[in-house]
């Protein structure tokens, strides 16, 4: 199979690798990847973190179900991230993303490769695959990974509704998913973004106002839009050092806030006098909220088509990451077997 590999700072190539086989593992299956959304791997390329197992989100078709009782060959599926054990108390509650007991599917199966999703095939425990309904395209379904997943949980925990004004900090691929879902829930969405391409895209996706967080007086401007109160909910996706503090300052007393971006340290104002609720959100619970996610994706279909700004071949991964480096894209998806294979699935 073909798979992406970072070979040095700023360098990513496509290599030939042995395709994984679903042998030996109790529940391992192999998925042919037809849609491979890009996430933060471009940061690893920039830093020169060598790896030939890149990517953690995908949609495709099961091609080897082995002894699985959950999926069959030919099933269209979304591939959830990581390799959780499926047995600990967190996994049993559907919180597999927090599982401390990650499995090694390569050691279990004897395969040499197959953990990454910027590739043509991936090996996965069957319970970390979700079947795609017939009325949802694989491209739309792939947003159930990082395009929608983290901020789906954020909006859930915040209880975002048509009664809310929602401030979204950062309009990269994750933040744009937050914008779409906030608009779909009926909230007034106010976006914060420094890059002009993504600011314009956020507006197209329904953000009523987009502010540059580097400008002075942004919390005050948001307050002026919300009867002097500030936004009722906020989601931080940018990871910028001062972003969480700025967002918290833009949220009203007794407001709610979710941190999605991974940063070494989150700096907030005193949250007790403000009565601020703060949630850390990583991914979503597909065991409990699967139908809610499909409903969100169905309602958001036209917006997803705008959010995905580039559809490219696997061989174009370097050019795709160049766009990510410049911030001149929304969500990028790669087609490891070409667009025809996606259309036929």
TrEMBL record:
Xref: InterPro entries: ADH-like_C, ADH-like_N, ER, GroES-like_sf, NAD(P)-bd_dom_sf, Zn_alcohol_dh
Keywords, in A-Z order: Metal-binding, Oxidoreductase, Zinc
Cofactor(s) it depends on: Zn(2+)
Ranges where the Enoyl reductase (ER) domain occurs: 8-334
Organism domain of life: Bacteria
Oxidoreductase in keyword set: yes
Record-linked PANTHER family: L-THREONINE 3-DEHYDROGENASE (PTHR43401)
Protein name: Threonine dehydrogenase-like Zn-dependent dehydrogenase
Annotated source species: Microlunatus panaciterrae
